[in-house]
Give the backbone structure.
Amino acid sequence: MFTKILIANRGEIACRVIATCQRLGIATVAVYSDADRNARHVRLADEAIAIGPAPARESYLRGDAILEAARRTGAQAIHPGYGFLSENAGFAQACAEAGIVFIGPSAAAIRAMGDKSAAKALMQQAGVPLTPGYHGDEQVPAFLRGQADGIGYPVLIKASAGGGGKGMRRVDDSAAFTEALASCQREAQSAFGNAHVLVEKYVERPRHIEIQVFGDSHGNVVYLFERDCSVQRRHQKVLEEAPAPGMTPGRRAAMGKAAVDAARAVNYVGAGTVEFIAAPNGDFFFMEMNTRLQVEHPVTECITGTDLVEWQLRVASGEPLPLQQDQLQIRGHALEARLYAEDADRGFLPSTGTLRHLRLPANSAHVRVDAGVEQGDAITPFYDPMIAKLIVWDVDRDAALRRMQQALAECEVVGVTTNAAFLRRLVMTDSFASANLDTALIEREHAALAPDAGDSDPTPWVLVAIAAIGSQAAASVDARDPHSPWQRQDGWRIGARAASTLTLEHRGNQQTVTLQERDGAWSVTVGAVCVLAHGGLDGDVLRVQSGDTLHRARVVRDGNALYLFGGDGTRHFILHDPVSEADQAVVDAGSLVAPMPGRIVATLVAPGTAVKRGAPLLVLEAMKMEHTLQAPADGVVQGYRVKPGDQVGDGAVLVDFDIVA
């Protein structure tokens, strides 16, 4: 076994590898960019080495810098995590030539499976079922369009060198093919440095089922059963679970055999995942092999009682697999949700900022939290905006589902917008609860996933108003004389307390709320509704009795924002101050601003062009994904303030736009 390894990654996977190494008594070396100088993985490791500026291409993607860090620290091996250089055959080869163990498959295996077109040909020889499509080298748009026409729509364009949903588009008719192809190729070139794509038949109502495989240098290969990763958004996984609901023993064995055959075809050593598209009739087709550990590997660990990172370390050091196929069994059911800093109500735009408050569920026998950040850390525009993975386990799927609902309700994040509320709505949809799964589930459940503003219910407004009064009173107390009556801000006066009027906003809706304390109770008026409530804020805990219901929530105030974290999720309100807002600068309504930091990829219409509302105006790349920004109304594009290649910040004005009344 190794005595020291270097982790060539960041975030939760780096923290996870460090934890496993600490348990095994292995010293760890972290690498970091300028943006990660104070990151959690740096704080946890025994040593840390700087490798370059914030952009990944200048730091985490620099194999030479990482190898030099390994040499300087005496690391015997490098764990690549996932993403970055984890599937880079050149880096794996460079490690071998430097006499440093790459904790993963050989460079030859990575090359064989890294090119999707070549991998398809190899799988065909191995007898692994393939999806009908074109997997060749010809990349002329007219030729590819002709192939798609021959295959029959819908088709899927996929980056040959990529994964993670980048460089991938579904196309439903011939007229849309050329534009979708250009977008895929741009995205693939940006994300993977390779614009090559393949075209495949799109399987209707498909499930995405992947098989975890593991090989060693002694010729052993096993599969650790399957994961269902069907719940996706833009081809990126959102929820994962193991085992796959409805999987029969016969189908599991057939898919497991196909996955092992795929691994044996390239003499695979280490952790890998063979991904399949499964049709409703039970047919399944090889999609790709990820030659690394997957983000969702914890659900496999939960149902098999294994530590796959430990397996990686043992296999890479020359040991045989810890278990053989007949020793592996499924126990219970596990679910994983990816908690991201993104705004689900604004098209899932990444959210950046400092985590001013972060509280996640406690780890237990049923709940596991893999996090790469802590309170006070920053989510930057340079890397994937994952905050944590929430993994739950229980004896069956229904029990695990209840665990996940509770775990998501316990997530408290202030400083960035998260997808926690969206995830909670998602696991509570009829389709997911009943395991009616396919890759279009999110689109199919669109109505159920839409946020409920709760405007017709006065209760949230009552609660946040009482919390606001309590937080204002607490903030005004002078610790030198906390009991002075002159510090009280509850409207006390001779005769009766004065009423307090607040202007609150929730999901774009503003309400004026009036509160008055009467005989130990609050009389709260929201619009035309008056509610009598008892209780208030004690520290950061709000307890309010309204009618027959006792409401309890934890309260966090961040400037003029109030967050109520309770059993039914998060409520986020803005407390408006008319005086301070009177002089606030307002961005010109006749302009288009950047919704997030990113790089301008293309401008789509010429200055002086009249366009309709929703017309594409420019393409912004952020987090290696392309986002098309559209005209806010009917009008005329007067000009651009940016050009392709420019880096822009959140809120930067991009287009001067004249609205036509």
